[in-house]
Specification:
Distance between the termini: 63 Å
Bound molecules: flavin-adenine dinucleotide, ligand DLZ, iron/sulfur cluster
Number of strands: 7
Structural class: mainly alpha
CATH architecture of the largest domain: Orthogonal Bundle
Strand content: 5-15%
Strand order of the largest sheet: 3-2-1-4-5
CATH topology of the largest domain: DNA Cyclobutane Dipyrimidine Photolyase, subunit A, domain 3
Largest sheet: 5 strands, parallel
CATH class of the largest domain: Mainly Alpha
Number of domains: 3
Shape: globular
Radius of gyration: 23 Å
CATH superfamily of the largest domain: DNA Cyclobutane Dipyrimidine Photolyase, subunit A, domain 3
């Protein structure tokens, strides 16, 4: 009897386990643009357009390869509105025996598929390097789940940058070479851009019409929307930007949204690029003498280290992970995250490029928008929903550990050994933003004082009981204790007044 093969919007890979399991002569692929997936958060219009266009092209690719594909467009009058609704409709239509699918990247959907009144067969998503069992075996019995040690296992498993049993260059990690501050100029014109073809144009019209009030725009859409384009972009980046990726990985420059970053997260996460293959191509550039070791190792660590590690945490921690709120933060996400007026140049830059491109690089996400949310005490679930909505590469399995764990410390330290907080000093060191900011980064108090300076101390003092015993934070508390009483009072009073303005919706 015929089986349905579900292919989700972020499963657009030829070697997907569900496709491998089934028979193109007999079984039917089901793909559907559905309101439920498009609106469980208010996704950025470019993210929706990217996925719908890539889904439509992938469906065509499967058909050309001999598959029968039942594809439902968003505006199809018979569209059931949800993945499970579409599967039930298609099962009846084709009198199907059941559904085969590759495990989705979100508990919400895993649970919904498991509850369906249909025979289901879930297969592991083996596009990842570590299986759930491998991650759990590694994690079992460890007091701290630090990424670095997991990463070394992944190096051994993949053989990437290995010289026998030893790491290439005798060191596992070259991170200390990857912290150069903002360069005067960026010598890379950014990711390869693709002119919308007819498929993309149709989708852009649909998204404009159906999601007019979502934060962001589809104007100037240039993303790759099939595997061939994504590979062309990757080849271009390896040649033009990889050599500088390491050096300026943490740097931020005004009106340079991409720096030397790869802009491959959206393509890998949707299945257009394979993570191991990407790393092997990058390793080859190093072997050919075209990229230095610090850049190559730094990049490969992000993918086989961080990417695999956060996925492991997401599935290990279970569906309630996104409810964590260890620091009991309860402030509403302020308007500045939706483009509200602000004098803070770092926030303005990071949010504006997020609105325009559905992209911000790691340090902007962690040390600008994430840092600000943490210092200001914003409810982590609201922060999580913002990140899940606004970035083209965001799916819960990767976004939630980065936001709830790494950025907001809402999981109480499963991922991070201390909260990623900093005063304006760090942003000043790593960017040129402060030079043209209305606030003064050197001012610790006073009308023009950088809000990160005020909020940094306020955060530490508010949470002193939680962090005072953390050996990595002792020095910060010692500095606070050495300050004159009067200065400490001023900082706290001014921080409270600044937060009051934020809450009142006044431009900050
Ligand atoms: P590059 O900087 O060029 O890095 C290369 C690749 O390494 C990325 O494409 C990605 O696949 C991987 N990578 C790097 N860092 C991480 C990380 N911390 N976790 C997982 N993979 C990583 N990444 C997402 O893919 N989706 C998200 O929703 C997401 N949300 C984030 C939220 C916060 C608060 C933070 C701090 C980080 C988040 N990241 C997320 C990780 C990282 O910021 C993005 O992967 C990266 O910015 C994507 O841009 P890029 O492709 O240019 O990456
Ligand atoms: C993110 C997304 C969106 C916006 N729309 C769809 C869709 O219409 N159909 C679909 O199959 N997938 C979509 N996705 C991706 C899913 O939300 C994703 O598969 C789950 O969140 C699991 O990662
Ligand atoms: Fe951001 Fe403060 Fe620098 Fe302004 S002075 S850009 S608010 S860190």
């Amino acid at each position: 009897m015929v089986r349905l093969v579900l292919v989700l919007g972020d499963q657009l890979s030829d070697n997907l386990s569900a496709l491998r399991k089934c028979d193109k002569a007999e079984d039917i692929v089901v793909m559907a643009e559905v309101a439920d997936e498009a609106s469980y958060v208010k996704h950025h219009p470019k993210k929706i357009a990217f996925l719908f266009a890539a889904m439509r092209k992938f469906a065509l690719r499967l058909e050309n390869d001999g598959w029968q594909v039942a594809y439902t467009k968003l505006d199809d009058p018979d569209n059931a509105g949800s993945i499970t609704g579409e599967l039930l409709r298609r099962a009846e239509e084709h009198d199907a025996a059941g559904v085969v699918y590759t495990e989705p990247g979100e508990w919400r959907l895993i649970e919904a598929l498991g509850d369906m009144p249909l025979k289901t067969h879930s297969l592991p998503d083996d596009r990842f390097i570590a299986s759930h069992d491998e991650f759990d075996d590694w994690a079992e019995g460890r007091k701290q789940l630090r990424m670095e040690y997991f990463y070394r296992e992944m190096r051994r498993k993949t053989g990437l940058l290995m010289d026998g049993d030893e790491p290439e260059g005798d060191k596992w990690n070259y991170d200390h070479e990857n912290r150069k501050s903002a360069p005067d100029a960026v010598h890379y014109s950014g990711p390869m851009q693709f002119t919308p073809d007819d498929t993309v144009k149709d989708v852009l019209d649909l998204v404009r019409e159906r999601f007019p009030s979502n934060f962001g725009t589809v104007d100037n859409f240039w993303f790759a929307t099939d595997a061939g384009q994504a590979q062309r972009h990757l080849t271009h980046w390896i040649k033009k930007a990889l050599p500088h990726f390491g050096d300026y990985q943490d740097a931020m420059v005004t009106d340079e949204p991409y720096m030397y970053h790869a802009i491959v997260g959206l393509y890998i996460n949707a299945g257009l690029l394979d993570p191991l293959d990407v790393c092997q191509q990058v390793e080859q550039a190093y072997k050919d003498g075209d990229a230095p070791l610090n850049a190559t190792e730094g990049f490969i660590r992000q993918i086989i280290g961080w990417r695999e590690y956060v996925r492991g945490i997401y599935f290990r921690e279970g569906p309630d992970y996104t409810d964590n709120n260890y620091l009991e933060h309860d402030r509403d996400l302020p308007d500045v995250y939706w483009g509200g007026e602000t004098k803070m140049k770092c926030m303005q830059q990071s949010v504006a490029q997020t609105r325009d491109e559905a992209y911000a690089h790691h340090i902007q996400r962690l040390m600008v928008t994430g840092n600000f949310a943490l210092l200001a005490g914003i409810h982590p679930h609201q922060v999580h929903e913002w990140y899940l909505a606004v970035y083209a590469d965001a799916y819960e399995w990767v976004e939630a550990p980065n936001v709830i764990g790494m950025s907001q410390f809402a999981d109480g330290g499963i991922i991070a050994s201390k909260p990623y907080v900093s005063s304006g000093n760090y942003i000043d060191k790593m960017s040129d933003y402060c030079k043209s900011c209305a606030y003064k980064v050197k001012d610790k108090t006073g009308e023009d004082a950088c809000p990160f300076n005020l909020l940094y101390w306020d955060f530490l003092v508010r949470h002193r009981n939680r962090f005072k015993a953390n050996p990595r934070m002792g020095q910060m508390y010692a500095t606070w204790d050495r300050m004159a009483d009067e200065k400490r009072d001023t900082i706290r009073t001014e921080a409270a007044a600044w937060l009051e303005k934020l809450d009142a919706g006044d431009p900050v």
